[in-house]
Specification:
Blueprint lengths: L15 H19 L3 E5 L4 H14 L3 E7 L7 H12 L3 E6 L1 H8 L5 H22 L3 E5 L4 H7 L18 E3 L7 H10 L4 H4 L19 H20 L8 E5 L4 E6 L2 E14 L7 E2 L4 H14 L3 E6 L13
Parallel strand pairs: 1-2, 1-4, 2-3, 4-5, 8-10
Antiparallel strand pairs: 6-8, 7-8, 8-9
Helix pairs in contact: 1-2, 1-7, 2-7, 4-5, 9-10
This protein binds xanthosine-5'-monophosphate.
Xanthosine-5'-monophosphate binds next to loops.
Length: about 325
């Protein structure tokens, strides 16, 4: 039997009741699989790994150790939320790794997008493996694989799924949501009591803000991406666009232009706003943001984000453009 085919007995999960049945069943399954063994999980804070963490916490509690790697390319507030939800509220074993300097040092001066992705992916695995090596007696590795990952590639997801661990660090996989589609994972997350902004979160690339700080990443531009993204998300939430627009974010290219501030000429970065609708990311259309809201977001970014003197709105659909800028 191919154990990568969704079982026919698994009904489509659309209601909280169905999600609760799934959760009860998975808790039994996980306890059977794991026994009194120890499990390790790379917890990014994305919906898939968060749901797997919450399921494992319910099933095996402190036998689970979560590792949250902060690579410096997460959105504003994300590492804090992971700590708050999983360590403080759910009482999980959570190792928080501040790897910001390490990632940014490795990325310094690297402008090729694929090279950046490779460095982020490799560094992530190295950091995770180092943490795993410090722990004794781990037998299982939790993974947030979902069904589309299996359908697309028979398995390997972005760097968050730690497929390339070194020899000697091989674990038995625990993949409780591997037969679920994204919308089903969200319903299960909701039933598990995870916060809405974690459950209904927009797609976020594995290399994070790194691909939105176009060109070689510098700390000042990275902060400009993070701060402008936070303003955009805040304004979208306040104006009923959160959960309605498929993906929205800001980009700060490695390019400066002239501006004027307090009567003095400036030569600073610009922020690009991108807001797109899509079904599966293969094509995307532009969200028609109301002009008054665009003005408000622009004014706030210009007033609040250091080093920025210009804001643009990207009207390019996919194709011809891609959703991300690199
Ligand atoms: P593009 O830019 O190719 O993006 O139109 C399509 C979708 O994929 C996301 N994306 C990534 N996700 N690792 C990821 O996990 C990546 O390297 C990556 N690059 C793009 C992008 O955010 C969009 O949702």
């Amino acid at each position: 039997m191919n154990n990568n085919v969704r079982p026919e007995s698994l009904e489509r999960i659309t209601t909280l009741e169905q999600a609760n049945d799934f959760i009860a069943e998975q808790i039994g399954e996980l306890r059977r699989q794991i026994g009194d063994g120890k499990v390790l999980l790379a917890l990014s804070g994305g919906v898939d790994s968060s749901v797997v963490a919450a399921l494992l916490i319910k099933a095996v509690g402190k036998q689970l150790t979560c590792v949250h790697v902060n690579h410096g390319l997460l959105r504003k507030g994300e590492p804090e939320q992971v700590i708050e939800v999983f360590r403080n509220q759910m009482d999980a074993n959570l190792i928080y790794v501040d790897a910001v300097d390490r990632f940014l040092d490795k990325l310094a001066g690297v402008s090729d997008p694929e090279q950046k992705r490779k460095i982020i992916g490799k560094e992530f695995i190295d950091v995770f493996a180092e943490e795993a090596e410090k722990l004794d007696g781990i037998r299982f590795l939790g993974q947030g694989t979902i069904y589309p990952d299996i359908l697309e590639s028979e398995g390997v997801k972005s760097h968050h799924n730690v497929g390339g661990l070194p020899e000697g660090l091989q674990f038995e996989l625990v993949e409780p949501v591997k037969f679920l589609y994204k919308d089903e994972v969200r319903v299960v997350g909701k039933a598990l009591g995870l916060p809405d902004n974690m459950v209904y979160r927009q797609p976020f690339p594995g290399p994070g803000l790194g691909v939105r700080c176009v060109g070689a990443i510098t700390r000042d531009r990275l902060e400009a991406v993070r701060e402008s993204d936070a303003i955009l998300r805040e304004e979208f939430a306040a104006n009923g666009l959160e959960g309605k627009v498929w993906q929205y974010f800001t980009i700060v290219p490695d390019f400066r232009s002239t501006g004027i501030k307090d009567g003095k000429r400036t030569f600073e970065w610009f922020v690009v706003i991108r807001a797109v609708n899509s079904i599966d990311a293969t094509a995307a259309t532009i969200e028609e943001i109301p002009y008054p809201l665009l003005h408000k977001i622009t004014d706030r970014i210009l007033a609040e984000v250091p080093g920025v003197n210009r804001v643009l709105y990207d009207l390019s659909p996919k194709p011809v453009s891609t959703i991300e800028w690199e």
